[in-house]
Amino acid sequence: MDRVMGLYSGAVRGIEASAAGLLPLAARGVFAAVLLFYFWTSALTKLGPGVAGVFLPSDGAYIQIFPKTTEAFGYDFSQFGVFHWAVVAAGTWAEFILPLLIVVGLFTRLAACGMIGFVIVQSVVDVMGHGVGGDTLGAAFDSASGALIWDQRLLWVFLLLVLVVKGGGALALDRGLAHVWGARSQRA
């Protein structure tokens, strides 16, 4: 029995040693495979026409982010102010930039924190603004595992929390920057 426990302990130590770099790398890979194009596709729907569309969001962007305000304004988009534009533009840019930062492993912890905030705001808008409820909303600790809000987004946030806690892991640009900054600080 001691031999079995020794083998087990050795295997666990090996897994733990490699997990420091591989777990965050795997988390970034899963994020890329499952969520990168989800967020980019969503962001593309918010861009206005042409190159200036990055700064002039589409009408659909306002409908998605401010559904009740859009209704209250009678779909007259000229009534939206600078605040509304800033929220829509920042949300659109965040949907492009934060996922990219996570995938390449640059400022990973900060980008993952930003994405957690984004997912929370997205969920609140879905529930409060778009009236998502019932089976789509779901509930934690129930027998159904596929609800859009509670189940899926709880998993998304957990995946992002791994990156907040562990960083970008192996093959992250963060590691390269850390080496560059470390070398510079040692020379100074």
UniProtKB/TrEMBL annotation:
- Give the stretches traversing the membrane: 21-40, 82-103, 110-133, 153-173
Checking Pfam families in the record gives: DoxX (PF07681)
Membrane topology recorded in Swiss-Prot or TrEMBL: Multi-pass membrane protein
UniProt keyword list: Membrane, Transmembrane, Transmembrane helix
Q: Does the keyword NAD apply?
A: no
**Location of the protein in the cell:** Membrane
Q: What InterPro entries does this protein's entry cite?
A: DoxX
Task: Give the GO cellular component terms, alphabetically.
Answer: membrane
Q: What is this protein called?
A: Putative oxidoreductase
Organism, by scientific name, is Pseudorhodobacter antarcticus
The lineage is: Bacteria, Pseudomonadati, Pseudomonadota, Alphaproteobacteria, Rhodobacterales
